[in-house]
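Section 3.1: Structural characterization of target chains.
Under the original work plan, the team committed to producing a structural model for every single-chain target entering the pipeline before any wet-lab resources were allocated. The record below documents one such target. The sequence was received from the expression subgroup and is listed exactly as submitted; it comprises 797 residues.
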Amino acid sequence: MAAAPAAAGSGASRGRRAAATVAAWGGWGGRPRPANILLQLRQGQLTGRGLVRAVQFTETFLTERDKPSKWSGIPQLLLKLYATSHLHSDFVECQNILKEISPLLSMEAMAFVTEERKLTQETTYPNTYIFDLFGGVDLLVEILMRPTVSLRGQKLKISDEMSKDCLSILYNTCVCTEGVTKRLAEKNDFVIFLFTLMTSKKTFLQTATLIEDILGVKKEMIRLDEVPNLSSLVSNFDQQQLANFCRILAVTISEMDTGNDDKHTLLAKNAQQKKSLSLGPSAAEINQAALLSIPGFVERLCKLATRKVSESTGTASFLQELEEWYTWLDNALVLDALMRVANEESEHSQASIVFSPPGASEENGLPHTSARTQLPQSMKIMHEIMYKLEVLYVLCVLLMGRQRNQVHRMIAEFKLIPGLNNLFDKLIWRKHSASALVLHGHNQNCDCSPDITLKIQFLRLLQSFSDHHENKYLLLNNQELNELSAISLKANIPEVEAVLNTDRSLVCDGKRGLLTRLLQVMKKEPAESSFRFWQARAVESFLRGTTSYADQMFLLKRGLLEHILYCIVDSECKSRDVLQSYFDLLGELMKFNVDAFKRFNKYINTDAKFQVFLKQINSSLVDSNMLVRCVTLSLDRFENQVDMKVAEVLSECRLLAYISQVPTQMSFLFRLINIIHVQTLTQENVSCLNTSLVILMLARRKERLPLYLRLLQRMEHNKKYPGFLLNNFHNLLRFWQQHYLHKDKDSTCLENSSCISFSYWKETVSILLNPDRQSPSALVSYMEEPYMDIDRDFTEE
């Protein structure tokens, strides 16, 4: 075959190609050096100059070098592909060549993602590497984007089948060859163009999977408002396509994580927020707004999330999707697991799918199906679980975004919560079967299992839904809402306004609401379960905000306090994350509630148990300080109440007696200030600073603030590092002013959770930071001048 016509258009181009070939051969008369050729191609790929494509070589040269170099004929095929893919081509021959290239790469990619990976890595020049090195990736990008080119005023078209082949080859190359995905991610016009290929069902899954991989490595987040006709594109997706599209959305609506722990400090976050204010909304926020502007988008997500297994798409369309999975490597492990499930169940069923293993003799190695094929129930369930994972994640992110109230309103209107309640037993928290799907190298209890991930995503959604929002009462059913009203009536306190305002047509139905179901599984959870953390966080979010006696009693009556104490004391939980979530929950459950302290004292009824409890508290104040804060606030309130019931609890409760001692409070105060510094403050440990402030605010109320500061000074000297603690506290308070005086939400949370007005918080901090050394309530009055270091700019340390 002659050289490619497009490359032979002039003598100059032929001369350049000959010169490149001579250079590759090491000069006229030199011996061929394939390694040198590949090196120069790689250099050309990086620089964009020199050898970059197969078309720069003669067909004779490529043929001669193919066998000894083990190139599998790929460079010659690329030469032909270049010649048959020009603008005036009918693309028929082009598609035939793609059919030849595809199996050379797909088998290698399949081996790469299975146990045969080691064998592939031992090959000197894998097919995918050669394909990319000789310009195959760039050529396929050009072919795919031909429809964007106008020829004599008309847009060019290529078939869906040809697009599908191009996408498959590109993805296989991304799988096996390092750097290809990043190079594609840099082609922003190509990434945007890929979205348009999702309009066809034939190319949807391939396109979506490639886009997901590309966006996963893209340095800058793509903006969905740049996608042509986004609203029409998404509106025309069927439910399965929309669920798969959520995999892409997960990348486009979540704020990009730098992966650097320093970026998670409050100093860095504040700096980033200041920068963001000048730059406007982030790409993630713009993308969230773009999605929410699509008519019916959230409603469709809610329907997907709450769809029962029996309502999911029938056998035939799922088989078609399995076929796509089989040919699409991103889901190879999933399909392999599904096939194993099916084979196991087929032994016990006369009407099951019979799958042929990979490498079967049939043309595409696809599943055989009988005329009366039935999909095994476990596969239907797993199919639904994998969809719901993505949908719940997107809903969760939207719930935490700028349009939170809008999303909350829509989620309530479209009955997401009652729908999830109906799925709780049969799908979300279903019992594991012997053949439950697990991925290679994992087990049923692994966090990577789809079953496990669905549960965690469900709990995260509940946490986001309940957190500081009156819609949290939708987690109850009508009977449970009536119970809340009865609790308020019996205690002779006003009924919670949010309960009165709850639309009863939108709450859970059935015998139990979602919150009650969650409590039931929470109490049955094994001690080592990874769910404990997320369950406690979800329940705690229901209690957050202004303290509600009725909410607390609702949970206390269901044995929640005893369960928490059992986990902390009797099981002697070792997980720091679980302990922190349980301490936080316990604090919210007991705060200002005399009945809760009575229950606590009844359970912790021996000194031995109480010492175990204190040991858990003192083992990490970062984890337990919220409980310390809640008990301290409760003690202060109880001491100012004249009530026989309260007096009885004050005299009997070990925990209240322990916290009431000044040495105990000073010990907590000293350690809370000592374990945090401005440069290491995060959203997780800033609570230590606020707890230390609560102790000092309550001391100020009792006109004992100077006493506490003198005791801090004495403890500082006793520890043999004078000045360190008070200087550190001074810096922390300066940061507190910068952080909280410009953030309405945080200040509101502090006020609601402590029942101390935010103005009192601000006044106390100002008094402590007073520069007058004569003031008995100013920190500087207790610092010796040689050790004073209070003017440092901590933002630059």
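The beta strands are 150-151, 154-155.
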